[in-house]
Amino acid sequence: MKLCAFRIKNFRSIVDTEWQNLSPDNITCLIGQNESGKTSVLEALRAFYTGVISEDVLRSDLSMPEITCRFSVKKGWLVEITGNAGTELKELLSGLSSLDLTRTWMPDFTSVIKASGAISDYLDSLENAWKLYLEEVQEKLKAELETISNLENTIKEIVSVKTDLSKRIGSGSPGGIITRLFHKEQPKGEEISISELKKQYSELVRDEQRIRAELLKKEKVKKAGAKYLYFKNSLEELERKMNELSSKLEEYHQKLTLLLMPVEKSSDPEWAKVLEDYRNTRKEKEKLISQLEEHIAFCGYLMEGKTEEEALLLVEKTIQRYRSQYTSEMLGKKYFEYCPVIELFEDFGSLLPNRIDLEDIIKGNDQVEGYKAARNFLTLAQLDYSFFQQTSSRILKQKIENLNNTLTVNFQDFWQQSIGKNNKIKIQFELDHYSLNYGDKAGKPYLEFWVKDAGERLYPKQRSRGVRWFLSFYMELKAAALRSTKPMILLIDEPGLSLHARAQEDVLKVFEDIKEKIQIIYTTHSPHLVDINKLHRVLAVQRDDMDNMKSATRILDAEKLAMASPDTLTPLQTIMGNRLASEGFAYDRINLIVNDIGTFYMLSSVLLITNFKGKINIIPSTDISTIPLMCNIMLGWGLKFAVLLFGNEKEKKMEEYLKESIFRTLEKENGMVIVTDPEFLNAEDLLSTLDFKNHVLKTREGITVPNSVYMAEKGLPRNFLLSRLLSEIKTGKLTADDFDEETHENFRYLTGLLKQFVK
Predict the structure, then answer these.
(1) Given the DSSP bridges, would you call strands 553-556 and 538-543 parallel, antiparallel or unpaired?
(2) In 611-644, which residue ranges form alpha helices assigned H by DSSP?
(3) Which residues contact 280 (CB under 8 A, 6 or more apart)?
(4) How many CB atoms lie within 10 A of CB 392?
(5) Is it the case that residue 415 has pLDDT exceeding 60?
(6) Range 301-319 average pLDDT
(7) What is the pLDDT of residues 322-333, one digit of tens each?
(8) With a threshold of 0.85, does the pTM exceed it?
(9) Quick check: helix, strand or coil at residue 524?
(10) Which ranges of 484-616 does DSSP label H, i.e. alpha helix?
(11) Fewer CB within 10 Å of terminal CB in the chain, N or C?
């Protein structure tokens, strides 16, 4: 099973992430501002695995979280591990290449995990058919019980009339018996004879016997109906109790949310009582529902005239026909056993100690400082206790020295930093024994660790925070990959905050090295922890309203990054702008000043597509208003430069200002203003509308205004969109053949302008 997508509901700032796909190459990066919800995504995925949450993850409406993970599986594998699946279920499972598992939480913070998606849809369809069947039987049962009630009322009426008739016959006075029997007035002057009354009495006796015989046949249904009503009343009572207890739990959750106090630390006996009552009531309710459903089906067969024994057998067969032998929860538990282990990497949770007793490692004493890191170290060295049983001290020391060399070489493959020019650090361990001064420990073995360089031999704790973090990180991930016997997903929040930019790039190398064994999901603000050539790995996390931290979290995949806010995309924009910081001003070519970074990206794209050979160096200004300052710097340094201006109002005014204040006395070869046709309000207008939609927006929206106006009106992240265009051209995803003739004509126009001033 490999995690390929997730959907998170009701978890902190998250209302519903919708389905989010993870990178198929096992490395997924979450970018976004602080408080956007990146860490919440990691914690939710961890909670999916552990089933453990606390009040601080609840939203203000106290709605319970629901987390669904989608795993890719081999076709046919689900059939193998399910066992005894019915024909229809087996057919469904055999065709599935993915599995959805959903964990939902109850008000008491217990949770259930269920198979969802296509599997639950199928099981739900069976369950719905079962419910419909039960509803039909219930309607018949209600009608039958009403019939029985009517017959019993008729018996009571007959008995009453018979009693009256007996009195009349005995007294010889028929009286108004016709009125009593037939509900109509007896004709005046007419009286019913005693013989007639006796005849009517006999008819009533026959009717009573017939009705009683009919009631006798329905006696079993009546008895079963009484039990049905008992179950119904009991269930209603339990539901009322559940609602009351749920309300009490919500009140308590609200209280703990405000106090930021976890449930497990509470010693409130009232809370414990409510919690116990809720759980017991829920179990009782589930059991009663099952009993009620089976009893309804049982009543159905009694109404058909079956004996109780026959009805019980038929109920069992009916359940098998209408319901699968598996429920979503049963399958969820079964499949979850194969779920990858999901771990949250603990920053500095496994720092290498200076020294640790060998006995503590052998006994697995995880309470000792540095135990986890020491265990990781020995895992990387592929050592066990038997290694240290070597009888020859010389041979043991030689083996340790060889291992130290191997460990160091492997570590240096990932840690590229040097102390000075070529002085790389080395990691080493030694086996030693306590001296007699250590009392009870005297003579016992211990391991000692060193992080060395050519100048110093220091304990791990004496090294910098960055070195200690990376060493801990490296050993944890590499050891986890070696120990892993089942798939593993590692969640890492902001790796390498204490590292230099170059060292952060080393973190990516570790990810690449272990990705075949461990799936990585990490968050970052750093541009050095994002591979710009692999944007499919990026999920952008932001709030719906960035000015309101109570707004919901939204996640955008690589195809929707253009919808992200500029602040969210800062790491990507920084990466794409790395070229700016590395080039600077040029002495051997024309420095072309443009209005901003977005225009830098667009013009760089034009030069690549047209294969422009002129000696030009594009310098982006931070804003139109800073162009004069950059011109003055060029003048002061004696550099050749030009300013490219477009047809918008601000740049028209800047043209007038530059010509009046800066270029008035300049000779053409030293500085010049290049002005485009007024129809080009900004650089992106060089693209045809069709190419702008296909290659920049990647959408089919109707656009009736210039490209630059559309961008401004929609508030789109211009720098990011144009930098992405440049990146795709650089990597060969877009070539000259992908642009239409209108775009090429505009590109030729611009390069023609530049050629007038550039050799």
Answers:
(1) antiparallel
(2) 627-637
(3) none
(4) 9
(5) no
(6) 85
(7) 766 778 888 889
(8) no
(9) strand
(10) 501-514, 570-576, 578-583, 597-610
(11) C
